[in-house]
Structure formats: structure tokens, C-alpha cells
TrEMBL record:
CDD domains hit by this protein: arch_bact_SO_family_Moco (cd02109)
PANTHER family reported in the protein's UniProt record: OXIDOREDUCTASE MOLYBDOPTERIN-BINDING DOMAIN-CONTAINING PROTEIN, PROTEIN-METHIONINE-SULFOXIDE REDUCTASE
Domain Oxidoreductase molybdopterin-binding, first and last residues per copy: 35-179
InterPro entries: OxRdtase_Mopterin-bd_dom (IPR000572), OxRdtase_Mopterin-bd_sf (IPR036374)
SUPFAM superfamilies for this protein: Oxidoreductase molybdopterin-binding domain
Protein name: DMSO/TMAO reductase YedYZ molybdopterin-dependent catalytic subunit
Lineage of the organism: Bacteria, Bacillati, Actinomycetota, Actinomycetes, Mycobacteriales
Entries under Pfam families matching the protein: Oxidored_molyb
Length: 197
């Protein structure tokens, strides 16, 4: 006898070229987290960037909001098999935050308020592929969805888009993050179904 949990499969798959293999389409925005939702006031929120050979940077909320902003419309895909199409976000590109002289052969570790981490190759966050997003569907990002700000890397499974991002550390070599050390795939491409090791 199969055990089926709502939101984790047993859904009829829709044929749509925008939906990766093994995914189903949802109009909801399911909330899945590894722990409790942190409460971060905008007056205390900061975003830090560490790049080898450079002085570390840190922005307050007001400084972050003064950076060049972009509106982004993308499809998102969760490792638990749901996909949501045409989602609308606003945020700051990692190209702006990391600068032009970052070696794309490196890696970045996202660190979140609450202790969550996830690792991503730099080639997956540069050239207009990733943002720190603060707005979803025209409204400030809800804490349950990673507000006040989260990483947004839409071409990878959504666990790579770390909620409640606090700082990014650029590294020369790869180090697994939270879910990657607990059995999830190190890269997470939904089109290749890179769900687990």
C-alpha cells in the first residue's frame, strides 16, 4: 500500500514544456522549511558579501534597497515535485552584489538567518541568473517564503534559493551546505532531475 502526502507526489503530471520531468503544476506557493521561520526586523537586517582578496561588504536594508533593482518573472521548481510558472519578483542581481572581477570557476555558500546554508557554483549565479529578492507578486516577501530577502536561483531546485539570506561567501573550492550534506544532490538541476545523491 502506498503512502501519499499532499504536496509530495501522486499528482497528475501536466504536459507543458516549462515543467521539468517529474514535476506537477501548482497555483499555490507551498511553504517548506528545514526549521522555524526566523523573525528579522528591517532595522536589524543586513546582507554581507565575502570575496577572497577583497574587503568584506555589508549593506543595511536601506543601502540594499538603494542598489539597482530588477523585476524578474520566472518559473520555480521545488525538489518535492511542484512547479509554479510565471512568478514575479523584485530584487538585486548577484552581478551587482559580487562585482565584475569574481572568478566564475569558484563557488558561493549562502548563509541564512537561522543557520541554513546552501552551496552553488558561481557560474550558476552570475550573468543574470540569480538575485537577492525582497518582493513577490508586488508585495514584500512574506517571512514564510524567506522574507525580508531570499536568494533566487530559478533554474535550480528551489532549496538552492536560500530563504532569509544573511551573507554570501565566495570560495575557491566547493563545500556542501545543509541539504547537500543530508542527501540532496550537490547541484540541483530540475531538468536533469538532480534531486538526491
Amino acid at each position: 500500500m502506498a503512502i501519499i502526502n499532499k504536496g509530495f507526489g501522486a499528482r497528475r503530471r501536466q504536459h507543458d514544456d516549462r515543467i521539468p520531468p517529474g514535476q506537477y503544476l501548482t497555483n499555490d506557493f507551498p511553504v517548506l522549511s528545514a526549521g522555524p521561520t526566523p523573525s528579522i526586523s528591517l532595522s536589524e537586517w543586513t546582507l554581507g558579501i565575502e570575496v577572497p582578496g577583497r574587503q568584506a561588504r555589508r549593506w543595511t536594508w536601506d543601502e540594499f534597497m538603494a542598489l539597482p533593482q530588477e523585476d524578474i518573472t520566472v518559473d520555480i521548481h521545488c525538489v518535492t515535485a511542484w512547479s509554479k510558472l510565471g512568478t514575479s519578483w523584485r530584487g538585486v542581481s548577484l552581478d551587482v552584489l559580487l562585482g565584475e572581477d569574481v572568478d566564475p570557476d569558484g563557488f558561493v555558500m549562502a548563509h541564512s538567518y537561522g543557520g541554513y546554508t546552501t552551496n552553488v557554483p558561481l557560474e550558476d549565479v552570475l550573468d543574470g541568473k540569480a538575485w537577492i529578492a525582497h518582493t513577490f507578486d508586488g508585495e514584500p516577501l512574506d517571512p514564510e517564503h524567506g522574507g525580508p530577502a531570499r536568494l533566487l536561483i530559478p533554474h535550480l531546485y528551489f532549496w538552492k534559493s536560500a530563504k532569509w539570506v544573511e551573507h554570501l561567501k565566495v570560495m575557491d573550492s566547493d563545500v556542501p551546505g545543509f541539504w547537500e550534506t543530508n542527501g540532496y544532490h550537490n547541484h540541483g538541476d530540475p531538468w536533469k532531475e538532480e534531486r538526491y545523491w
